[in-house]
Design brief:
The chain is mainly alpha-helical. It is 80% helix and 0% strand. The two termini are 31 Å apart.
Length: 186
């Protein structure tokens, strides 16, 4: 959850760079035009990796013992980082479409909060009313949480992993070109 909330800041940082003139300064340099954008998002992926590592280390310190050991934990962390990278492209698009960093942050959290809190991260979906349980079952964040838990425990469902990877690829395939086009025009 903390990694997914961090993805909003990709859009906020990009919007801040655009409104403060940093993007214009990069354009005056003899580099590939999209290099600052791609570099920023790859740097954000390192931030996601660090955030996920902190959470896992804290969990282990508090007594969590993953059944699949280190390979399962690394696989789960990799899956979360890949999903977050795909999601960061969406928030980068928002960062280029909205006028201020606060607008990006507000819009981002208005989208990510309901998806996170209407997932199986905090509550067993079987305890929810029917329509809400049905939404939670198809929520990509629920599927990500289930796949990550399964990888760490050694009983991951391949379908869940495939869905998470497909969503990450779809987010990147749709929003990376859109973000790149908006970045070049801004």
């Amino acid at each position: 959850m903390s990694v997914l909330f961090t993805t909003v800041y990709s859009g906020v940082a990009l919007n801040t760079d655009r409104t403060k003139g940093v993007v214009d300064r990069f354009r005056s340099l003899p580099v590939w035009q999209s290099a600052p954008l791609v570099g920023s998002l790859l740097g954000d992926a390192v931030r996601y990796l660090l955030a996920g590592t902190v959470i896992i280390v804290l969990g282990v310190a508090l007594g969590f013992r993953p059944g699949a050991g280190l390979p399962g934990v690394l696989a789960a962390l990799g899956l979360v980082v890949l999903f977050a990278f795909g999601l960061s492209w969406f928030f980068s698009t928002l960062g280029l479409l909205l006028r201020t960093p606060n607008a990006v942050m507000n819009a981002g959290f208005m989208g990510i909060f309901p998806l996170t809190f209407l997932s199986n991260v905090f509550v067993d979906p079987t305890t929810l009313p029917g329509p809400l349980e049905a939404f939670v079952a198809v929520n990509p964040i629920s599927i990500l949480a289930t796949a990550s838990r399964g990888l760490m425990e050694g009983n991951a469902d391949g379908t869940d992993i495939a869905i998470v990877l497909a969503v990450a690829v779809a987010l990147t395939a749709v929003f990376a070109p859109l973000t790149t086009r908006l970045y070049r025009r801004s």
